[in-house]
Design a protein that fits this description.
By secondary structure, the protein is α+β, with helices and mostly antiparallel strands. The chain has four helices and three strands; from the N terminus they run αββααβα. Helix 1 packs across helix 3.
Amino acid sequence: MSDNRVRRVAEQIKKDVSQIIGAEIKDPRVASITSVTDVELTRDLRYASVYVSIYGNEVEKEETLQTLVRASGFIRGEIGRRVRLRYTPEISFFLDTSIEYGAYIENLLKSLKKEENSDNERSSENN
């Protein structure tokens, strides 16, 4: 199967899963800021790994992820109605921490820059 087709179908599933989570899942355990960051499909379009980023503390993240896992049958059914495929892919949800990791690295870089600036100021005062 064409890699372009797999990519296009993955993008469509990503868009649809985002809409389903935002508009159709009414469970209060789903955090209000939950975004789908990526969808990886197998070449035969039978299995989809959906990566979600969840804003909140660890308990909220775990509750939201477990709720999405329990709702995967509903989400799969909705995807089947929206995306015309011979087989609707089995959906697995995974927590994506790349945004948090990026923020952590950014904070580290900022603190290093502050230390460098303070070291430069001290060395210029000594001269």
